[in-house]
Amino acid sequence: MLQQVGPPQEVYDRPGNIFVADFIGSPAMNMFPARLQTRNGDVFADSEVGSFRLNSQQADGAMKASDGEIVVGVRPEHLYVGGDEGSGTVSTTLGAMADLVEHLGNESHVTFSLSDATLVARLDARVKIRLGETVPLTVLVENLHLFDRASGQRLL
Fold this sequence. Notes:
By secondary structure, this protein is mainly β. Helices cover about 10% and strands about 45% of the residues. It has three helices and ten strands. Strand 7 (about 105-115) and strand 8 form a beta hairpin. The longest helix is centred in the middle third of the chain and has 7 residues, at about 55-60.
């Protein structure tokens, strides 16, 4: 069944549902279940990976989830080792242990474990990660994809 129509980059940047998000891109988008919570007027997506404070646009879109249960997605190239690497002002840093490092010449694919979750990061080859090393992984909130857990549809 046809899931989404559009230019390839648009489909990659704004997948319409979980199936498309998982299908387009290699390595695949990292996805994990989360629950929406409001604290001190801010909306957070709380998951086993970490707690992400959503910006106002994301919070408005996420509130469309029928029961507050969502799926958070982040592309491997949007995980950064160390501090904030982009233009976003809101980020979350997670402590992650390297389980697998694949050196591919110009880049490395590193599989990290956090609690019971696994994340894959696409990193510049000059970023040196050793097996078993725990490093700070930063996710810019502007790079998160949010999906309704029940329907699988994109929330914004």
